[in-house]
Design a protein that fits this description.
The chain contains 16 helices and no strands. By secondary structure, it is mostly helical. Helix 2 packs antiparallel against helix 10 and helix 12 packs antiparallel against helix 14.
């Protein structure tokens, strides 16, 4: 457990270093520096890492049930966020153009809730959390889970965001579809994922030449620290005292609470073992990747309010996910012990979001409380009761599992 906590603290430290570099103007966040770092991460380091890992992957170790369950959970949450957001916002749609704008905003929110920072933050956490053959299998699963969003879900969001263009006619819509499909097919991440998987399946995991393995290994080794530093750099200047936190908090709850709970529930229904359920919960709690902000700026740059809310949500989600990942990691490590019971492990997992939801309710109550509101007082009492129950049940479950 010490290695897991150390890895999580180290990741947060590198993110904080990136944030400090931007905040102290060591790196000009408005200049070409952050863009160059982002280009290296997204177009060189990560594609090299993906190709090498998939080309040398032992496919017999892949858990198809885990892969399908996570894909189903992400697809379900994507559709739920897209549908609910569109339905709630549709009352403000005056005409067809306004409705398309609302659908585009909902698509951006759906991508936010399903696009995890799997490699920059997830990879070192998973490597520290699991060891030996078990660790290699989980890392291999992580490399296969990431393309679910990149190849299957994000293109749907891109199409919906791209279809909202001011004064766009039918020919413009067809051009948008063509541009989005071309972009997805030619993205280095997607191309290297497909090529690496095909290479490994066709020639086997040991067929990669030594010089290619060394070259890709050196290039990919620079990904984790650079990506974490870039994540911190991307957070600079996103939150101000005037910022409205309602939508960012809702998106952060959707990503860090709803997604891991849905993954856990689907894996439980599918009959997965405790190890797979713990892995799924931790992977679901990983915060949103900074690339979502790039997508929003590219497709919806004319909607400044949405871009601002997405930026704030990225900060909130990154901060909010840390205690969830740590608590979920504690429970996941405890599951490997012989004394762990399924009910106790479920308590340890599900009490984490319960405690955070109760805390959120109490903070909302404190911000809007009125002396004459007796109903508000009852709400506060119920929230305190729920928080105490969640914290107590989680602590009891973890102590019981560890004893």
């Amino acid at each position: 457990m010490t290695s897991f906590a150390s890895a999580l603290v180290a990741c947060i430290g590198v993110i904080a270093a990136g944030y400090g570099a931007g905040r102290l103007k060591i790196i000009d966040t408005t200049g070409a520096g952050p863009a160059a770092i982002g280009a290296f991460v997204g177009r060189f380091a990560l594609p090299a890492l993906l190709f090498r890992e998939l080309a040398t992957l032992h496919w017999k170790d892949i858990d198809g049930r885990l892969l399908a369950s996570v894909a189903a959970a992400k697809a379900l949450l994507f559709a739920g966020v897209l549908g609910c957001s569109t339905l709630l916002e549709s009352r403000r749609a005056g005409d067809d153009r306004d409705f398309k704008r609302l659908v585009a905003a909902s698509a951006a929110r759906a991508i936010f809730c399903t696009q995890s920072n799997d490699f920059a933050l997830g990879l070192p956490v998973i490597q520290a959390l699991y060891g030996g053959d078990e660790g290699r299998r989980m890392v291999a699963m992580l490399y296969l889970l990431a393309p679910i969003s990149l190849v299957l879900l994000n293109p749907i969001g891109f199409l919906l965001m791209g279809l909202y263009e001011p004064d766009e006619g039918r020919s413009g819509r067809k051009e948008t579809v063509r541009r989005v499909l071309k972009r997805v097919a030619t993205t280095p991440l997607v191309a290297c994922t497909a090529l690496g998987a095909l290479y490994g399946l066709a020639l086997g995991p040991d067929a990669l030449p030594a010089f290619a393995d060394g070259f890709l290994g050196i290039l990919g080794a620079g990904f984790t620290p650079t990506a974490l530093f870039f994540t911190g750099l991307s957070l600079v200047g996103r939150v101000t005292p005037e910022t409205d936190l309602l939508v960012p908090l809702a998106l952060s709850f959707g990503k860090c609470v709803a997604l891991p709970v849905v993954i856990y529930a689907i894996l439980d229904v599918a009959g997965a073992d405790a190890l797979s359920k713990g892995f799924g919960f931790v992977v679901g709690a990983i915060p949103t990747a900074p690339s979502v902000l790039v997508y929003t700026n590219e497709y919806l740059r004319h909607d400044e309010a949405l871009v601002a809310k997405t930026s704030v949500a990225l900060v909130v989600c990154t901060v909010f996910s840390t205690p969830i990942i740590f608590a979920a990691g504690l429970a996941a490590r405890s599951e490997s012990m012989a004394t762990a019971a399924d009910a106790e492990v479920a308590d340890a997992f599900l009490c984490v979001p319960s405690a955070l939801l109760a805390t959120w309710c109490l903070c909302s109550f404190a911000a809007t409380w009125r002396d004459e509101g007796t109903d508000d007082d009852r709400f506060a009492i119920l929230s305190v009761n729920a928080l105490c129950h969640a914290v107590g049940a989680s602590a009891a479950a973890l102590c019981s599992v560890a004893s």
